[in-house]
Amino acid sequence: MQALEQKILSEGIVLSDQVLKVDAFLNHQIDPVLMQQVGKEFAERFKDQGITKIITIEASGIAPAIMAGLELGVPVIFARKYQSLTLKDDLYRSKVFSFTKQTESTIAISKKHINQNDKALVIDDFLANGHAALALIDLIQQAQAEVIGVGIVIEKSFQSGRDLLIEKGYRVESLARVKSLANGQVEFVAEAE
Amino acid sequence: MQALEQKILSEGIVLSDQVLKVDAFLNHQIDPVLMQQVGKEFAERFKDQGITKIITIEASGIAPAIMAGLELGVPVIFARKYQSLTLKDDLYRSKVFSFTKQTESTIAISKKHINQNDKALVIDDFLANGHAALALIDLIQQAQAEVIGVGIVIEKSFQSGRDLLIEKGYRVESLARVKSLANGQVEFVAEAE
Fold first, then answer.
1. CATH number attached to the domain at B2-119+138-152+164-188
2. Closest chain A residue by Cα to residue B58
3. Could A70 and B31 be called an inter-chain contact, meaning their C-beta atoms sit closer than 8 Å?
């Protein structure tokens, strides 16, 4: 997605050959117009799939997911990382290890909002090793709902997440695919690759 | 805002005379169409104020804030509750006590994304005692930016937050104002009150 790649090039910051910081438009400050374009692009790629729910994870997944939900006309559920006093329903739980924070956390969604009739699309801001996406898929499968695919805003294609998800049979649509962050430069996977 | 009040009546759950649970459309599952209406309503109320930034707090503030940002054509910053390894810039920090979780936490925004030329609108999902809103206002004022007002999706009018903010001179626009949750019933403040 060209507008997204342009934004990454102009406002993304390469912190190391592993870490791309996009706090200017996705992970801290958010560009609502770009998010709307992102939502439209996800909707275009996953239309006609009968999607009934979008599942994401707080906090940075919410903006792209809500815009995709608006375009597809379906509700969005964001998995919670911490149980709040008001999220005490019966929950589906899964564990996810964050390399960024070096902690394992439990994520959860309420059993009330997803069931075996749902066709769910997973959306997240980043795909790196795939742990977050797999935890979201696990939650969906606990509900016996169908996983239609995984929509990612920025994929770090040099990490193992994409291959892992495809190997397990999931469709992955990433709007920007970063091939390398070497030498402080963002290089994208060419469209045909 | 009538569509919001109807949604609260049909899908909100009164957990006690203090706690209204809206996990069906705002705090866990999100209704994107309602959020778009919420965003349009905030934009209508705060248009012509020269707003340049919307400031909210993760996670439940993001959906209404991003829709307001889309309508007003301005970026949204969500204050982070926990420092991540990639949010290491110079930060403005403020403390906020959560009655829901009974914990004090530090929230922060990067100094890079807000400055003295900004006119900021605070948006949050709930207004209860006002602590979260005041912490967001504190962050804005540390940046020497101007606070244009506070936009709230659901105000618990029987708690002290609204009066506290108005006493301090801030404009508060709440789209639904809950007068009472007594006897398991949601009662709204009448429009004229």
1. 3.40.50.2020
2. A59
3. no
B192/chain A closest Cα distance in angstroms: 31
CB contact (8 A) between residue A78 and residue B19: no
N-terminal to C-terminal alpha carbon distance within chain B = 14
* Number of inter-chain CB pairs under 8 A, A vs B: 128
Q: Where are the domains of chain A?
A: 2-188
- State pLDDT tens for residues A118-140: 999 999 999 999 999 999 999 99
Q: What is the pTM of this model?
A: 0.96
**For chain A, which residues score pLDDT lower than 50?**
84-85
- Which of A69, A70, A77 is nearest residue B28 as measured by Cβ atoms? A77
Pairwise CA distance, residues B193 & B190, whole Å: 6
pLDDT at B89 over 60: yes
Q: Cβ of A26 under 8 Å from any chain B Cβ?
A: no
Which candidate in A66, A113, A126 is best for mutational testing of the B interface (most B CBs within 10 A)? A66
What pLDDT is recorded for position B85?
42
Nearest CA in chain A to B33: A70
CA dihedral sign, ordered A142, B62, B66, B64 = positive
Q: Alpha carbon of A192 to those of A172, A178, B142: distances in Å? A: 15, 14, 48
Question: Which two structure tokens, joined as six digits, stand for A76?
Answer: 């969005």
Token pair of A125, please? 């801001």
Distance, in Å, from the CA atom of A98 to the CA atom of B50, rounded to the nearest integer, reads 39
Q: What is the DSSP letter of B189?
A: P
Rg of chain B on CA atoms, in Å: 16
> Cα B82 to chain center, whole Å?
18
Domain range A2-188, CATH class: alpha beta
ipTM: 0.95
Residue B155 has pLDDT above 60, yes or no: yes
Give buried/exposed letters for A73-112 (b at 16+ CB in 10 A, else e): ebbbbbbbbeeeebbeeebbebebebeeeeeeeebbbbee
- Say how many residues make up chain B: 193
